[in-house]
Design a protein that fits this description.
The structure is a single chain. The chain has helices at about 5-15, 20-35, 35-50, 65-70. With about 70 residues, it is mostly helical. The termini are far apart.
C-alpha cells in the first residue's frame, strides 16, 4: 500500500488478528471490477480458498448462510 494511513490501519488490525478482513475486502473489490470472465473465475476461486473455506488460511467471519451460498 502506498497510503500511509492504510498501512497504519493494517498494522493495527494485525495486532488484533483482523488483517484478513481488509485483505478480503481488497480482493473482492478487485474481483468486482474484473471484466475478463476467466480472470474473474480464477479470482473467485482464490477468494474462496483463501478466505471462505473452513480450512482457509485467512478465514473471515461470515454468516453460515452467506458461506453456504458462496460454496
Amino acid at each position: 500500500d502506498s497510503d500511509p494511513i492504510r498501512r497504519r490501519f493494517r498494522r493495527y488490525l494485525q495486532t488484533l488478528h483482523m488483517d484478513e478482513n481488509v485483505r478480503f475486502w481488497d480482493c473482492v473489490t478487485v474481483h468486482k471490477v474484473e471484466s475478463d470472465p476467466t480472470k474473474r473465475a480464477i479470482s473467485a476461486r482464490a477468494i474462496i480458498q483463501t478466505f471462505v473455506l473452513d480450512s482457509a488460511p485467512l478465514q473471515v467471519n461470515l454468516y453460515s448462510q452467506t458461506r453456504d451460498r458462496l460454496m
